[in-house]
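To fix ideas, we give here one paired sequence and structure record:
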Amino acid sequence: MTLPLSVPATASLLASPVVELRQYTLKPNRRETLIDIFDSHFIEGQEDAGMTIIGQFRDLDRPDMFVWLRGFDGMEARKDALTAFYDGPVWAAHRDAANATMIDSDDVLLLKPAWPGAGFDLSGLQRGALPEVGKPSLDNRLSGIVVIQIHHLRPGAEADFAGNFETDAVPILTAAGGRLLGAFKTEHAENSFPRLPVRLGENVFIAATGFDSAETHARYEAALAASPRWQALRQAADIAGPTEALRLTPTSQSLLR
């Protein structure tokens, strides 16, 4: 299991009642450029505006994808924080360079914890040292991977799915070697900052799980595939489409790892 570090001043113990999961499609070979800009400038700028930058990741299976999570204290707080940042000096200074790396930045899911206490616990976590510009941080090889599964549900199925996941699925996942980092469902409130679109009409349940390595995750998947209880839960779940699985490795500045 991934081990906690120490508490940063910027992290609340449980972040946050509103979370964005953002997936950016980048131009070929531009991911490290964006990570350099993001980790050097955008974390501090956004947190000064009132957000929590929870985690940012390289996608192991899609070399031109950058995935990240940020949290807010509520929908009105989200509006205020995003306005402060995107109208502020940090974004103005670096937006052209950041946007030059991107093909699409509109794949965004607006989320809330799936049950009380299901949000990300950031206590005991801190950011690593910044690597040299243009060079990936070597400590990524030691920080494990985060797997985010996106389950697409039928309308109205969130409560039952979340309840069954908490009571029935989590013990199976833990026994198979996974550590649940957080569980979320769609936040259906109106987008409080329409300058940045979110995916409308979605009804999802998201589980983020931590592993020491890709090999540990592979053994975990094999254990689930061999579990009759797990297979029975999957067959009974009210899922509307294929589950998306993101295998992610954190940047040196990611709190979640």
Q: What stands out?
A: The chain has one domain: 14-250. Confidence is low (pLDDT under 50) at residues 1-12, 138-142. DSSP finds six helices and ten strands in the chain. Residues 18 and 112 are 5 Å apart (CA to CA).
